[in-house]
Amino acid sequence: MSAYADLTLTSTDALELLVKAPTPAAAEKLTRTQITAVLTRHRRRNREAKAATVQAALREPQLGLPGQVTTAYAATATAHAA
User: Is pTM beyond 0.85 here?
Assistant: First the structure.
């Protein structure tokens, strides 16, 4: 969640990124281009710097949970954000 600190967690761009990559493993694979595209669609300024910040935060080590718990959280987050 720290990856979205600059975006505010309830902003539509943060929610779009969460739907696009609801698990830590999926989020880690987001490219800077994908993140920048989301920021562009939501008319964010300073997109390149924000994309780099978000990508770096998503690639930091995360606390691990059992696979079934991660899958359940991902499904819940996706359902709420959609």
Answer: no
